[in-house]
Specification:
Blueprint: H1 26-33, H2 45-60, H3 66-70, H4 77-93, H5 96-120, H6 125-139, H7 141-144, H8 152-168, H9 194-207, H10 215-234, H11 238-258, H12 263-287, H13 297-320
Helix pairs in contact: 2-5, 4-5, 9-11, 10-11, 12-13
């Protein structure tokens, strides 16, 4: 299902508390330290949800938690992002228990924002639930109606068409007069991280048919961007080099999307691989009584190749076990 949209934010009024690596957010620590009665597992989902809504409302009410009462939509931005990434981390770890906990923390953020909106009369959690419920029914006519969609690709195509139709029936957001009509790219906020923004834009463009026919075309585009970057570097043109690096990154994101890969997930995987190998390099260097900063380029390369070989050997052993 296409990801949810995010709202534009204001600057936080409260600085983020200092955290140690690997330590949960300040919000998480505060919640964990509270004494909240354990709810019966026999309760139905609706009752449990209502209990959680009531807990959050109590924390914001007079005489509730001082920290909760200070928060605004803006100050909670960091925690919303943190919790989303911690869900991704739990998925990567493959731990059902961790995933259940992290999804709960993410759900709490939704309730918190809804409760803030309720206090101002903007909307309530019931409006959030009703809106997404109706959208799921509306966007899945192949399940709840007479439309046909036999493949995931057909589902996505129908989704894009329905979304475009809805936007035509909705007053457009403020935009330059040059681009007054609804766009396929509406709803991809500029506040997204650049990697995700590029992924979402190319994904939406592809849903209306603007896409490469073969992966070879994207690979040729990558070579073209590399050549243009080399030309900018040869000309010592920093501005042009910055633009070409951006074009190169955009093309790589497009390649990942075309191959049905999430660029964020693939990059996270490579980040972890680099971190593991680098930590191995540091360990091997310390065993010889030296730090990495004291080694020559040749010695660093030797340690890197050794770390790669060790990682491959471990992967091979795990696959055989």
């Amino acid at each position: 299902m296409p990801p949810r949209q995010t709202k534009s934010k204001k600057i936080s009024k409260r600085p983020k508390p200092q955290q140690k690596p690997g330590v949960k957010s300040a919000r998480r620590q505060i919640i964990k330290s509270r004494s909240i009665p354990t709810k019966s597992k026999a309760k139905q989902v609706g009752e449990l949800f209502e209990d959680l809504v009531a807990v959050q409302a109590r924390l914001r009410a007079p005489g509730g938690c001082p920290w909760d009462r200070e928060q605004t939509h803006s100050t909670l931005r960091t925690y919303l992002i943190e919790e989303a990434y911690e869900v991704l981390d739990a998925i990567e770890r493959g731990s059902p228990q961790e995933l259940a906990e992290e999804l709960g923390d993410l759900l709490l953020q939704v309730l918190f924002h809804a409760d803030l909106a309720r206090e101002t009369g903007a909307f309530a959690i019931s409006d959030v639930i009703t809106a997404i419920h109706d959208k799921m029914i509306r966007r899945h006519p192949h399940v709840f109606g007479d439309a046909k969609a036999e493949t995931a690709g057909e589902v996505l195509k129908n989704w894009a068409q329905l979304k475009a139709k809805e936007k035509q029936e909705t007053p457009p957001r403020a935009r330059s007069a040059q681009y007054a009509s609804p766009s396929t790219l509406d709803g991809v906020p500029r506040s997204l991280p650049a990697l995700l923004e590029a992924y979402q834009m190319t994904r939406r463009a592809a849903q209306v048919g603007f896409d490469w026919q073969r992966v070879e075309g994207i690979l040729e585009k990558l070579q073209e961007e590399i050549a243009e970057l080399q030309a900018a570097l040869n000309a010592s043109d920093r501005d042009a080099a910055e633009e070409e690096v951006g074009d190169l990154l955009f093309s790589v994101v497009n390649l990942a999307r075309f191959l049905d890969l999430d660029p964020e997930v693939t990059l996270k995987r490579s980040n972890l691989k680099f971190k593991t190998r680098f930590l191995q390099m540091e360990t091997d260097a310390l065993r010889s009584g030296r730090a990495l900063s004291q080694l020559s380029k040749e010695e660093l390369e030797h340690l890197w190749q050794a770390a790669k070989a060790k990682a491959r050997s471990q992967t091979s052993m795990e696959s055989k076990s």
